[in-house]
Amino acid sequence: MADPLMLPTHIHAFLDSHGWADAEIAPVAGDASFRRYFRVRAGGRSAILMDAPPPEETAPFVALAGWLGAHGFAAPQVQAEDRAKGLILIDDLGDDRMREAVDADPRRAPALYRAAVDTLIALHRQAPPPGAAYDAAALLDRALLLVDWYCPAVGITPDRAGYEAAWAAVLPLAEPVRPVLALRDYHAENLMILADGQIGLLDFQDAMLGHPAYDLVSLLQDARRDVEPEIAAAMLDHYCAATDMGADFIAAYHVLGAQRNARIIGVFTRLWQRDGKDRYPSLCPRVWRYLEQDLVHPALAPVRAWFDAVIPPSLRGDPMRLRPA
Asked: What is the rounded CA–CA span in Å between residue 235 and residue 185?
């Protein structure tokens, strides 16, 4: 097998043992983790190889792929795996990704976002599988990434105790009455458009049990692309009408939006500073805009007061550009 990618021999051995000897191998877009993805082609067939060596874990992906498929959702099913080496061969959902489809033809955005929201509505009507709770404690822990990484990066010594107290005052509003499966990375770059009109699901291995507003926020406050405000408002209204949600859900939506955006700002800063991935800080200004929109909601008054006191508008943006000289 020709190996222009210089892949480890155990990857070739894995493919050979599962009927993909002499397959063509090409890299495909990955995510922010250390996982790698390849498309393998042979004899008119194609599949996706996930290379997720330890300490990455493949068991959650395998279990959730099976659960989603069994409940009628278009998640790639596992064809073969070597759990010890972190190799999984999964179905190839193609190249028609929602991100590129909407960017190429914005007229498709309303229909595609509605299909993505309808997929969430269907998912949230299912009793979820067992899983860890994305509860107030877990939400606070992840929100701390902003004070641990972003604040020092831009020269701010944060009031950590005040930050924790502010979030503790509002996060109970995001405790779900009935937890659902929250995929936690539900956005246009992880959604595929399939030939039968279904939305294909990717990157769900970090799913937890949480509030139904979480994935809706992930979709409509997308860190990687601007979602038109009219579409975001219409899709929020559509979800609420279909699920009979009211003011409490809207408050939770903005609390979770603020929490998620604070976490992402911290994560993107960490990806730059710790992992050398310097394309992520440039996404932070968009995430700050979403965060500031969420902070307007009255339910977030304690958190808004902390941000107003600690992080001035002039230091809300790309941490690479704002770092002290």
From this structure: 18
